[in-house]
Amino acid sequence: MSVAYLGPQGSFTEAAVRGLGVPRAAAVPYPTVRQVLDAVRRGTQQAGVVPWENSVEGAVTESVDALTGGRDLVIVAETLLRVEFALAVVPAGSLASVRQVVTHPVAHAQCRAWLGAHLPRAEVVSATSTAQAARDVAAAGAAHRAAIAAPDALRRYGLDIVAQGIGDRTDAVTRFVRVSRPVAATGGPTGADRTSLVVPLAGQMQHLHAVLEEFTRRGVRLTAVLSRPGGFGLGTYSFLLECEGHLDDAPVRTVVDALVRRHAAFVLGSYPRAGADRPALTG
């Protein structure tokens, strides 16, 4: 199976790909989340892996919006990855020489306190991934630039680490999902599953309470409720809801059928859940 992932090589997503059991030779890096998903949509790749949420900043909205905007891809698996951040410079640089820091916005958010204490005047520049930040800084060769990424990624691109463990939380975990076209989705209940669905309530916000009551009434435990712009003007929203259980479990099926019938909801996937009984990988 060929699998697209948010690259370049050395990214946290590449580590997550390995955690999902994908052979290294089958993994193909793409520069953006949207390009990963488009490659799966076109059939260029059979599956894709993207970051979905992290324990510090919550949902990775780039991935959520790109996937929930259509009904042509589904989530088929997930994995958890413990993330660690370091800051590195080119060999000619030093911590004192840093005037610009390049990293992914989610990584920046998780290192904000350290940056405020140690590099308060440094400009922060966004990259499409932390590994891309490392590659960009290495390619530029400028002593005033630094990258924030996983230690292994920084070393891979020949940078010198000048500060380690700079994340605001030492227990940060990111959840990654594998997606495919619906025809490739397989697998029944495992006893430890998650179901994700989208409920488009644009112009019908008054129904949110009734939507949530469906889960309570059937004893289905929600694990996430996320609102995203509905695409029909300010104040209109769609909701990403995630719950424990598989679509083939009777209570979950009853809830989903009701939401599909009443609110045009659609299922984004029903798949094995990574949890406390399945320890997170290390980055």
Structural class: alpha/beta
List the uncertain runs: 276-283
Nearest-integer average pLDDT: 90
Beta-strand proportion: 25-35%
How many DSSP H or I helices? 9
Order of helices and strands: EHEHEEHEEEHHEHEHEEEHEEHEE
Would you report the number of β strands? Answer: 16
The CATH topology of the largest domain is Alpha-Beta Plaits
- Quickly name the level 1 CATH class of the largest domain: Alpha Beta
Portion of residues within helices: 25-40%
Radius of gyration: 20 Å
Q: In one word, what is the shape?
A: elongated
The profile of the biggest β sheet is: 7 strands, mixed
Provide the domain count. 2
N- to C-terminal separation? 23 Å
CATH architecture call of the largest domain: 2-Layer Sandwich
CATH superfamily of the largest domain: ACT domain
List keywords for this structure.
283 residues; Alpha-Beta Plaits; 5-stranded mixed β-sheet; disordered C terminus
What does this structure look like?
The chain folds into two domains: 3-82 and 173-281, ACT domain (Alpha-Beta Plaits, 2-Layer Sandwich), CATH 3.30.70.260; 86-164, D-Maltodextrin-Binding Protein, domain 2, CATH 3.40.190.10. 29% of the residues lie in helices and 32% in strands. It has nine helices and 16 strands. The strands form three sheets. Strands 1, 2, 3, 4, 5, 11 and 16 form a seven-stranded mixed beta sheet that branches. It has a five-stranded mixed beta sheet with strand order 8-7-9-6-10. Helix 8 (208-218) runs antiparallel to helix 9. The longest helix has 14 residues, at 250-263.
